[in-house]
């Protein structure tokens, strides 16, 4: 089992400058490799360059520019080239599947915030001694950097990454661990229905309120963004305003993560089996297609884009995708079972008689079956149907 750990680093002024230079030079390598691929395809009979060809050039690049490229880890530079290769692989995959391709773009220095080290001990070294409050991580060209290790790392460290978030520096570790001891069985099963009015409803009739972190911070974010727009470009005042906006967004993101971790942990501790909807969030937040006006060339009919934009913002603010990812990870560690089911008609199907109709849900909160008269909260009905579908899938797997 692979688990990730993220710790805050405490670099000195010189070490912070060296870390910034490392990211700058990796960014330069990334952009240079991207330019080489573009030029080869455009000017050399549509020739495609692969990772192996570019990795073979690293030795010459490091010898030609020892000050900027030769001082950093060879393996981390290979990881940067693999990162570009992965971007091109995703581009070609999207082209073949008919999706919006999204050709790989050049990265600005401020938009290249991560450098990876594929193996602990190759260009980096994680030095953590049990019961020693002083933890350090060593990077080639930087030195030993203090780390605020707030929890122990279990297992053998496999990879190390440096990540910059605003003015803060983090080290991200992946460690290989043995299978953990499962939690004691509780005999409880539950289905959950994700929502906006409530973050989730469960099949037992319980609700988790939606904290709406983004909406609560909207006024401060709007004021900070307006202050940023009034600043002169490349000025110190603008740099501080950019940092202010980034800090506010970072706080909202951390609040969402904290809420997701606590909610998922509570579910995993109390239930052996959890069923949830298999939500296609990327499709749910797509903007509606424009409707051309047949009577007015060049004009368009109303398509509800403004209302859909508000709904998309609420879905994004809820953070369903992050929560479901965390729930799956925690359930795996605890020996619990999580199953995703098809969400179609889960809130329109009567759990008593099985009648399916859009009229069964007259409004957002109410479920009233037109067949048998059964009444309940619509989200509770949805969670109940999700649980039943999940149990059917589990029994089919075991059978």
Descriptive key words:
399 residues; alpha+beta; 11 helices; 16 strands
General description of the model:
The chain has 399 residues and is of the alpha+beta class. The mean pLDDT is 92. It is 43% helix and 20% strand. It has helices spanning 13-43, 51-55, 58-64, 74-97, 213-216, 218-229, 236-270, 281-284, 305-318, 320-334, 378-398; strands at residues 2-10, 114-117, 124-127, 135-139, 143-148, 156-165, 168-176, 189-194, 198-202, 207-209, 273-277, 291-292, 300-301, 337-341, 366-368, 375-377. It has eleven helices and 16 strands. Helix 6 runs antiparallel to helix 7. The strands form four sheets. The chain has a seven-stranded antiparallel sheet with strand order 2-6-7-1-5-4-3. A five-stranded mixed sheet has the order 10-9-8-11-14. The protein has two domains: 2-176, no CATH class; 189-213 and 254-398, Nucleotidyltransferase, domain 5 (2-Layer Sandwich).
